[in-house]
Amino acid sequence: ATTKIGETLALFGQRTQLETQISSYNVQLKNLRNILTNLDNIAVTAISTGSSDIRDPMIDKLIIKLTDLYQQRTNLRRTATEANPLVQKINGEIETTKVALRNALNGALTNLNVVIENLKYRLQQTKATINRLPSAERKKLGIQRKFEFSDNTYELFMQRKATAGIALATNESDWKIIENAKVNSYMGLISPNVKFIYLLAIFASLFIPSIIILIIDMFDNRIKSKKEIEKITRIPIIGSIVKGDKNKKLITQYSTKSALTESIRDIRINLQFISSDSDKKVIGITSSVSGEGKTFCAVNLGAVTAQSGKRVLVLDADMRNSKMSSYFNTQKVKHGFSSYLIGTSSLEEIIQPSPIKNLDIIFAGPFPPNPSDLLGLPKASLLLKELHKKYDYIIVDFPPIGLVGDYMILSKYIDINIYISRYKFTLRKSFEKINNLFNEKKLENLIIILNDVKVDTLYGSNPYYLKDRK
């Protein structure tokens, strides 16, 4: 008998538990449907309050996010209109969050319906089992069950009420207007001080850029004028070459009256007064580092000199990083200076005619592993002596003197030594080595050319030199 009573109590307890679960899930289902139905018009407080009966972490997270977005938009609207980009951005985020919340709610509704149907089925089975029990015992336990159900339901709703109260309290604004702002009709607008702001803006617009420019200029150690060169070296400056078009490498591609042509022609004239005891000259050109334009100066100085009627040869002695072949659209050079020095090419094979009248070229040839050793061979000096008999001017393009010592090997055969410095490229400290060579008198007839100078800094505002004229 005791066993049967225990089984009966277990059945009624199971029924009570199932009914409680169904009731709880129905509450969640109702809240989900209310939120889904009124999602577009629902208030932030209503969302937060209703979410207390929802036990889905994803939905809770989306509701919290949506509540925060509503709060941000409310705060912005105090000082901004709907056209404000920040308000529009938050509106977009609210719509995106609503879409995600709607999808999550639909998924939760589907799952809750499945769970409720399963609980109802189990409840029906439990009720069917209870109906087979004796009537007196069933009535007694039924009364007891109703009492327990009512008590549990009361406790459940009290918990929900307390949770809703807490959620409502947390969503209330933590600020309120004590007194609206007023404008004193006698004093006018107190703040902001418009005149002071205008003066501050004008002062900042003039002072701050000046400070920035001054700081940049203090830390910029590149050459920007002839005066800077004159301050750091005693080597004379023979002239400046104007900045040209990066797509035009040869002087023949420019007008004869262009600023670039005139600047190179001016240097060619000045060279006649250096080492004037001989009509035939060997000119060596170098720089501190690669990229300062020594090859450009060598080729175009040779072109301008050839146009004056002199026989000119440009010798590419930079057997480490030669770029002269690109000036004449020449691909691979089999016969050049290096192949002559090692004995695989003759003098006639290495001398190449150029498209410019009176101008011949000797390219560097294949890059050898030991350029300095080749330049030290007797054949190098003999070659210069042999070429000196055939040409009025020999212009030798050497590697940068600031990186390697190739230049000094043949310096005793050079009549005029030209050091190329590039505008806003060459560093001031690059002059240390060339200054030492000049002070120690290891290089005679040493001069400087400032390359890549802007036209307006060289010729002022004279319109004759500001553009190419045909």
Chain-wise SSE layout:
Elements: H1 2-37, H2 44-50, H3 57-77, H4 85-131, H5 135-171, H6 194-219, H7 226-232, E1 237-242, H8 259-271, E2 281-287, H9 294-307, E3 312-316, H10 337-341, H11 347-350, E4 351-353, E5 359-362, H12 371-375, H13 378-390, E6 393-397, H14 406-409, E7 416-422, H15 431-439, E8 446-453, H16 455-459
Parallel strand pairs: 1-8, 2-6, 2-7, 3-5, 3-6, 7-8
Antiparallel strand pairs: 4-5
Helix pairs in contact: 1-4, 1-5, 2-3, 2-5, 3-4, 8-9
Query: How confident overall, as mean pLDDT?
Result: 83
Uncertain regions spanning at least 5 consecutive residues: none
As a percent range, the share of strand residues is 5-15%
- What letter string, H or E per element, gives the SSE order? HHHHHHHEHEHEHHEEHHEHEHEH
**Count of runs of 4 or more consecutive helical residues:** 16
Strand order of the largest sheet: 1-8-7-2-6-3-5-4
**Global geometry:** elongated
List how many beta strands DSSP finds.
8
Biggest beta sheet summary: 8 strands, mixed
Q: What is the helical fraction, as a range of percent? A: 40-55%
Question: Cα-atom Rg, whole angstroms?
Answer: 47 Å
Alpha-carbon distance between the termini? 125 Å
Structure class: alpha/beta
